[in-house]
Every structure is written in C-alpha cells, then in structure tokens.
TrEMBL record:
Gene3D superfamilies: YbaK/aminoacyl-tRNA synthetase-associated domain
Organism of this sequence: Stutzerimonas stutzeri
Lineage: Bacteria, Pseudomonadati, Pseudomonadota, Gammaproteobacteria, Pseudomonadales
Protein name stated in the entry: Cys-tRNA(Pro)/cys-tRNA(Cys) deacylase
Alphabetized Pfam families for the sequence: tRNA_edit (PF04073)
Signal peptide positions on this chain: none
Gene Ontology MF terms: aminoacyl-tRNA deacylase activity
Domain YbaK/aminoacyl-tRNA synthetase-associated, first and last residues per copy: 25-141
Length: 160
C-alpha cells in the first residue's frame, strides 16, 4: 500500500524518477548503503518527530545524528521521536521505508543541510526494499520541504 502511494506520487509529480526495488531489505542505513553500493551518508533517512503539538519529518543524511540543541532552536521546542505505530499512522509508510513522498497525512517536511554534501541521495520509497536516486534539491522541491540545520555529521574514524 505504502509503496503504491509513493508510485502514484512519482507518476504524477516526477515521472522521470524510477523507484528502485530490491529483493533484500534496505530498512537500515547500513543495509541500504550496502545494497545500493554507496556510502552510508548518501542514504537519506526520514525521521518523524513530535515537537509541542506538531508532527513533522526531517530528512537527513544516513550518517548524521540529530543535534538536540539545534532542533530545539530550529523548531522552538524539545523533539520527541515518534513510535513506530504513530509513524505508520501519520505517513502510511513502515519504519525502514519512511520517506517524504506519498504521505497518508499532510506533514511539514524539513531537509537537513547535511544532504547537500552529495550530488545524489537515496531516500526510501515507502517500503523496506525500495528507494529512489535523487538530487537533494529536487528531493526538497518534491517534498515541499524547507532546509534546516538540525544535525551533526559523525565522522567515521577507524583506529589501527
């Protein structure tokens, strides 16, 4: 059902964008990065929050972490991540397939500045085995998103 709402969204608004469906799960950033052959940062994860009386989505690069001080400053309150049932009810998408496209309810969408580090990112497409390849600017345009700075990028360092 969720994949179908995303399919309908792209058929209407961006028929040039193909939905990629894989046999394996891409429900986590690590699984998605491996399946698509990209670095984890290129996976555009969609996170659902409640701030005060508002529910909203933040799309960020896969290896970024929400910065509580930045999100409070940007939205004027403490952010609480929504539980899986609330996410499904609001977006129509299962956790691991959440994206800002083909939503079940009208939600404000925000794209974190961290996405701009890449020419293309891969957000999910409504199912735990689907995604699209898209330029961050186009993602924001199609999702009617505003740009915010609410994340910190965690540098991957390995010690010998």
């Amino acid at each position: 059902m969720s994949l179908e709402s995303v399919r309908a969204f792209f058929a209407e608004k961006a028929p040039d964008i193909a939905i990629i469906e894989l046999d394996s799960s891409t429900a986590t950033v690590a699984l998605a990065a491996e399946a698509h052959g990209v670095e984890p940062g290129q996976i555009a994860k969609t996170l659902a929050f409640r701030i005060g009386e508002r529910n909203l989505l933040v799309v960020a690069r896969g290896d970024a972490r929400i910065d509580n001080r930045k999100i409070k400053a940007a939205f004027g309150g403490k952010a609480k991540m929504l539980d899986a049932d609330s996410v499904v009810a609001l977006t129509g998408h299962p956790v691991g397939g959440v994206c800002p496209f083909g939503l079940a309810t009208s939600l404000s969408v925000y794209c974190d500045e961290s996405l701009k580090a890449f020419d293309q990112v891969l957000p999910a497409a409504g199912a735990i085995h689907s995604a699209v390849r898209i330029c961050p600017q186009r993602l924001a345009e199609l999702a009617d998103a505003q740009w915010v700075d609410v994340c910190q990028v965690v540098e991957n360092t390995t010690e010998a």
